[in-house]
Amino acid sequence: MASPCECRIGLGYDVHRLESGRKLTLGGVNIESSVGLVGHSDADALLHAITDAILGAIAEPDIGDLFSPSDDEWKDISSTVFVKEALRRATLKGFIVRNVDTVVIAEKPKLKEWKNAIRSRVAKILDIGEDCVGIKAKSGEGLGPVGKGKAIEVRAVVLLNKRSDKQDSC
Question: Is the pTM of this model over 0.90?
Answer without folding.
Answer: yes
